[in-house]
Design goal:
about 400 residues, alpha/beta, Dehydroquinate synthase-like, alpha domain, two-stranded antiparallel sheet, 16 helices
């Protein structure tokens, strides 16, 4: 148990242990390579596939960020590969049926391995396509924008509804800090927001443990807290693209992402803040509008959730630790991230609607449901709305 809490991230792949929670946890990723200028390590890490047929997935942004360089180096070393670049014009690439189907068309009978150069959406697409076609896959990360690199689930849009489909781990993840530090700042802020969201996700997990006797693992919770701590330490340096701070953010994203696979559920990494973010995203998709990056919505959702916890403090069971809203805001402000739903273009009406209905999107007990059961959600929503929108 203590080993994983003390281990270096690169040593975690393959770890397995019997936990005090009564379950056996394992990290079923083959390789984690994090460093600066690690192009040679990517080639070495994929050397077992040199004689096989690779499919490389990218979009026009990740092609320019690192994909082109990776493909050229692999070709120079004799890899057989076919590359495909998504081109959505000015539209945002979405992890929906169209994109998944397009990627599937590129998988040929002799394709044995899928390599993706990208971040959240591209890795979600590659994960589900590789799983459904029986291929292994690896990720060359291009931005520290979300915690899904080490996840076993793909966050997809199916039938205009946000859903998570669980599949398998990547066999390897390569993260080059010298590349990721140059990602658009809005993506760096999104990664920071995604990690900070664990502050309220852990509170929700503890709440449902107490109220519903739901499965809970203290070791996994500590692992997430370790990741969040790394993230908070990196806040001021992120705004300056300091490479050491970027490394701290990447470590945090990987640790919090691993927690989902270890627990077998998304509880350690996703609570009310994600319910709100998903609701806002789905409403934008339904209207054919682009929505903010997921992590930026999660960061704002974390502020809102912390406000709700503060209002509910008098009716909460004992033993629930939650962050103060001002503390969350101060963290987000250090990196220049959004702190108010208005910053995301969320109207007052949509905000109220999300507070009342986001809990119904998934069967996940959070403080939203708790306040509703206590007959206080409408009252607390009114107070929060007036504070945020007046």
């Amino acid at each position: 148990m203590g080993d994983i809490l003390q281990a270096n991230i690169e040593d975690m792949p393959g770890m397995s242990f019997d936990c005090e929670c009564g379950r056996k946890h394992s990290v079923d990723i083959g390789k984690l390579v994090i460093g600066s200028d690690n192009l040679d390590e990517i080639v070495e890490g994929l050397s077992a596939f040199r004689g096989e047929k690779l499919l490389v997935l990218m979009d026009k942004n990740t092609y320019g960020a690192f994909g082109e360089i990776v493909v050229k180096r692999l070709l120079d070393y004799g890899f057989q590969l076919k590359s495909f670049m998504f081109d959505t014009g000015d539209r945002m690439l979405l992890p929906d049926e169209r994109s998944i189907g397009r990627a599937l068309l590129e998988v040929e009978p002799d394709t044995t391995f899928i390599l993706v150069a990208g971040s959240g959406v591209l890795s979600d697409i590659a994960r589900i396509v590789s799983y459904r076609t029986g291929k292994r896959f690896a990720i060359v990360a291009t931005a520290p924008s979300m915690d899904g690199y080490t996840s076993v689930g793909s966050s997809l849009i199916v039938g205009n509804t946000k859903t998570t489909i669980y599949s398998h781990y990547p066999c390897a993840i390569f993260a080059d800090t010298s590349v990721m530090r140059n990602a658009p700042m809005i993506m760096i802020r999104a990664g920071f927001g995604d990690v900070i969201g664990k502050l309220t996700a852990l509170a929700d997990w503890n709440l449902t443990r107490i109220i519903n006797n739901e499965y809970y693992c203290g070791t996994i919770a500590k692992l997430v807290q370790k990741g969040v701590g790394k993230c908070m330490e990196s806040a001021e340096g992120l705004a300056a693209r300091d490479e050491r701070s970027i490394r701290c953010l990447i470590d945090a994203l990987i640790l919090t992402g691993l927690s989902i696979g270890l627990a077998g559920v998304s509880r350690p990494a996703s609570g009310t803040e994600h319910q709100l973010a998903h609701y806002w995203e789905i409403k934008a998709v339904e209207k054919g509008e682009e929505h903010p990056l997921h992590g930026n919505s999660v960061g704002v959702g974390t502020v809102v959730t912390a406000m709700l916890y503060e209002l509910a403090s008098g009716i909460l069971p004992e033993g629930i630790d939650y962050p103060k809203a001002d503390f969350v805001k101060s963290l987000l402000e250090k990196v220049g991230a959004f702190t108010n739903p208005r910053d995301l273009g969320i109207s007052r009406e949509l905000f109220v609607e999300s507070m009342m209905n986001a809990m119904n999107m998934k069967d996940k007990y959070t403080v939203l449901r708790y306040c509703a059961q206590k007959g206080k959600l409408e009252e607390f929503t009114d107070i929060i709305t007036r504070e945020l929108y007046n």
